[in-house]
Every structure is written in C-alpha cells, then in structure tokens.
Description:
Shape: elongated
Radius of gyration: 26 Å
CATH topology of the largest domain: Nucleotidyltransferase, domain 5
Strand content: 25-35%
Distance between the termini: 20 Å
CATH architecture of the largest domain: 2-Layer Sandwich
Number of strands: 12
Largest sheet: 12 strands, mixed
Number of helices: 9
Order of helices and strands: HEEEEHHEHEEEEEEEHHHHH
Amino acid sequence: MFFRQHLSRADAVSLLVGDEGVVTKAGKRTYGLDRCFASLYGTPVPGLACFTLSLVSVQARRSLPRRGEQVVRSAAEKAASKATADAKKQKPSTAKRRPGRPKGSKNPPKADGTRPPEFCRLTGRLDALLHLIAGVVSVRSVVLDGHCGHHNALQRAQQSNLHLMSKLRCDAALSFPSVGPYAGRGPRRTDGDKVDDDNLPEPDCQETTVEGHIQTRLSQRQLLHKECVQPVHVVIIAQTHLRTQARAHVVLFSSDLARAYAPLVDYDGLRCQIECNFLDTKKYWVLEDFMNITPTGITNAAHLSLFMVHVAYRLCTEVRQRAPDSSVLDVKADCRGSKYVEETIKMLPEKPEPILFAKILNQVAGLGRIHATQPSCSFS
Length: 380
C-alpha cells in the first residue's frame, strides 16, 4: 500500500530484478544458519541468505525492493552440493570407454529436464510477486545475475510472459545457426560452427571505444546455446589492453530477440542497484544487527529493514528538493531531533509561540546533520 500510494508511477518503465544477499551471523540457534558465499569476503561465511525481488525504475535509475524471502537449503541439497564438490576434487578415472555413443541412449528433451530446488523456489517467489503487483506496475523483463543464467530460469521467465536478461559463463557453449545444405538423411542440423569470442565476425561488432589503454568492443548476434531450445540474443563485451594485449570478456544474453545491444547493457548495469538496497539495509536499518532467531522474527526483521528503504527514499525525495546534498543520515537526524523537541515541549507548563517553536525545532533537528542545511519542517 505504501508503494502504491507514494512510489509507483503509471508511466514508469520498470524492470524486475532478483539477487541474493548474505547477512553474517554468529551462534548456532538462528533459524536457517548456513555457510553462504559472500562476494564481499570472497569466501563462504556463516550467515543467512535472503533472495530479494526488486522493481527498478529505468527513468529514476533506482531500485525498490518488493519481496524478500529467506533461503533455507534442505539436508538433501547440502548433501548433493557436498557430493558434487567431492567429485570435482577426485582425480578423473584413467579407464577409457569405447568411442562412440553408448548403445540404447537417447536425447532427452531439453525442456523436460530435472528441475533443481532453486528453480522451484524461484517459481514460487516470482508468482507471488507478479500477483502482488498485478494492475499496479507493468513488467516485461526480469534481470538476474549469472547464477540464474541457465535454461531453467529462461523457461520459468517465459512461463510468466517475461523476457529473461542475465549473464552466461565466459566459456558458454554457443554456436552460430547452421547455414549449410541438408545432408540428405536424418534431421536437419540447427547448430553450426562454435563461437570463438576472440575472433568474432566483423559485421557483428556494434561499437568500439578506446579509453586510455583499454579498448572496449561490443558485439551482438542471435546465437544458439547447447541447453536452450530457442535462439538467444547475445551481447559480448570484450576489453583488450592495448599494451599487453590481455583480454577479458562478459557474455550477456536475453530471450528478447528484438532487443538492441545498448538497452541490454544498460539494464544489466541497473541490476546492480539492488546491491545498494542491501547496503542501505545493513548501513542504516540494522539488518546485520538484529538478534532474532525464530523464522517469524527473522522474516519480520528483514522485511522491516527493506520497508524502511522505501520510507527513506520517499523522505529523501522531498528533502533533496531544497537541500540536494541531504543523505539518509540527515533525514534520520531530522526525525530524531524533531521527536526530542516535541517530547521536551510536552514537559513545559506552557507551550511556546508557534514561531519560537519552529525556530527551536529547526535548530535542534539540525544538530545531528552531516550537512549544514537546516530543515524547514518536521518529519514526526
């Protein structure tokens, strides 16, 4: 209701963005406590994982979290992850099997593979949010990080009539569509030569820029992926150091074949706005400091922190109209000072005149501000 009343705009172009945030926690009794990979530390740490879906306004370039849910892995998932990690550590077997395809094996349909537990969790969260914002915000695309850049997430987005935008691995199995003649027997071949990221065709290059010693080249093409049923629109961002010839590249993809390369690159950059929400909840709204250990308590604490991101954004929008340098800390200082003044005035035998009251309020409320601009009203 707060989002509908104060933050939503009918003419805004919005993206649905999803990402997982990690809150470090100690102890042993907290519900859902697990070892989660934290990109800030670069290693798994004890903590809680929360998957959040957010709406990002393309015009305002601002993310507003809409739904968060704690990620709790089952014992079977943990055992499967441990088995996979142990299998990678073991040395490959030296035994060689006979060349060719095993007798009796068949190609399983790509769209009917086994659904991982993460896919099932994403399905429930996406359905719940789309039902919540129906009739309020129109969304056509969902942007996820590279962890969800696979065919399962692509199928799930298409089931909800959404286009998926995400990242592929740098060594993804991409190939050009087949243009050769029909061999005369068997099914027609759909995939052609494999894509070489270091030697892309010149017609696919859309933009080349040089900044200092770094050359950035953007290429786009409709390609085939080994695991996807349909073609995908791929944008490859390659950077080359002109002195050392060192090279690195990022592969973005979208199920929207008509999408141009520039909006795809821009939308992937907007996905990082959700990281600002996680930073605000930890820095200003004590997401790292709550002491709840029950499922309900953890959910309430996380949702309250995410909700306060909305309230702070709404207040900062008003304050910055007269004080552009104001921050969330300034708004918190205003609210705290206004409350102190009102509680103090209640103790006086006679309330001061309105003009004197406004001066006292502005003076005291501005004491805790970082920026010197004085507020002109109370936020209590």
